[in-house]
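Subject: Protein entry, chain in single-letter code together with its fold tokens

Area: Proteins and the way their chains fold up in space.

Attached in line: The record itself begins immediately under this heading.
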Amino acid sequence: GALAVSLAAESPKMPALGLIAPYLEMPPKIARAAEVSWLWGWLAPVVGSTEGRSILNPKEAQQNLAYGIFTVGALRALHTVAHRASAALPRVVAPTLIVQSRTDNRIDPSVTERAFARLAATDKRLEWITGAARHHRRLRL
């Protein structure tokens, strides 16, 4: 989602933009951890999430063994990409549809509402769904 937003901001003639649970803002604690990861990254070069999984299909979850585990470099890159995409929202003019679950364990509804409000598109729609990503997970540092 963040990459699509960045591309749409650079391509004003894009005919439409569809976003499903776009990751456009890190939780403050995780963002701070990413920003200062140069201090602690050498101690914990790999970080993981805790408290449940968002892949609800048991067969699919079994096949994704590394899901929720990433390097400190990947954490920093995600922070950069999300930050740039968030800053690009006011330049997105393409008709936009955002689909988001109110129970998403990574994207708080308020983040989606802020992002939606910042879109420059005059033709935009936010669709809320339920029953997705019921488990909560926090980053373990």
Q: What stands out?
A: The helical segments are 2-10, 28-35, 37-40, 58-63, 72-88, 109-118.
